[in-house]
């Protein structure tokens, strides 16, 4: 791609979208290729996309902006097909498990890039900040899926989300075979059952 959007005959909005998509595609390509190249490094991205660093920062003011766009490309690219592939859930436990399975499926589809992002989200920096914002939105959704009679739904939802993030981290290290979605369906169910087991009233002594 040319280093300047202005040289293209496409309308400005289309040029802008195409350039942003080229940088995001470069991140996916670098991650899939492996090696030492950082799929989130502007220098590596511009080299892969055949553009300049000033053009990168013209479209993404910060690395955090780019990381948020990359996360969106992972999750939104497969959102409709993930939902279609997930059987209809009945009851809070099944609905919550289906929700986390839908979050996991796009990570499986973009495993190379996801495995680069997930460990970085556990360290201070722009990846952690971008994923923290998405974590809060997911917690709010899980809280809505919990029975209204349960106390401290936000805390319970946060516990489940962090259990899911722990499964993500283990999966990203590649120490256990299988897809993340399969691990979610196999292992997260225990955390969900535990959260739902303690309802209103005093808990264990």
Structure description:
This protein is an all-alpha fold and 205 residues long. It is built from ten helices and no strands. The protein has helices spanning 12-33, 42-49, 53-59, 63-77, 79-85, 92-109, 111-120, 126-145, 153-172, 180-197. α8 (126-145) packs across α9. The longest helix has 22 residues, at 12-33. Mean pLDDT is 85; it is low at 201-205.
Pick out its properties.
disordered C terminus; 205 residues; mainly alpha; elongated; single chain; 0% strand
How do the strands and helices of this protein lay out in sequence?
Blueprint: H1 12-33, H2 42-49, H3 53-59, H4 63-77, H5 79-85, H6 92-109, H7 111-120, H8 126-145, H9 153-172, H10 180-197
Helix pairs in contact: 1-2, 1-7, 4-6, 4-8, 6-7, 6-10, 7-9, 8-9, 9-10
H/I helix tally = 10
Largest sheet: none
Mean pLDDT: 85
Give the total of beta strands: 0
Which of globular, elongated, flat, extended, rod-shaped describes the shape?
Answer: elongated
Radius of gyration: 20 Å
What order do the helices and strands follow?
HHHHHHHHHH
Ranges where pLDDT stays below 50 over 5 or more residues in a row are 201-205
Structural class: mainly alpha
Taken as a percent bin, the fraction of beta residues is under 5%
Helical content (DSSP H or I, runs of 4+): over 70%
Distance between the termini: 65 Å
